[in-house]
Amino acid sequence: MQKILVIAVSLVAVLAPSRANSQLIPQPWVSVGVKDSDATFAVGAKAINWGVEVGTADGATGVDVLKFIRVPVISPYVGLGLYSADKGVAVSGGVQVGATDNVFVGVGYNTIRGINGQVGVRF
Q1: What are 27-45's pLDDT values in tens digits?
Q2: Cα–Cα distance between 77 and 67 in angstroms, integer?
Q3: Which CATH architecture has domain 2-121?
Q4: Beta-carbon neighbour count of residue 96 at 10 Å?
Q5: pLDDT at 9
């Protein structure tokens, strides 16, 4: 799992065009969800329209790489992940929206972690 995270972050760093410093500051979030009546949890961060989320569900841990689509007001995303414990590949999607200048909320679905709510901060 750590190798996948390192590769994903490295690719984002190499492929990302240079941006203003304010766009390079990661925007972290926490996520709580439910799949088959079991609670699921994740933490994530995004910068430069890419994100990484590390989550857990039903004894499995995984990493999702997310691509955010920049449109006015909302930030929809799609992603692919890899999970342990024979869970395999996950597909995810969702949307995040600014609640205040420094707080954003979101809702998403992950094929392994189920439906989830997100709360994050912008610095």
Answers
A1: 999 999 999 999 999 999 9
A2: 5
A3: Beta Barrel (2.40)
A4: 24
A5: 47
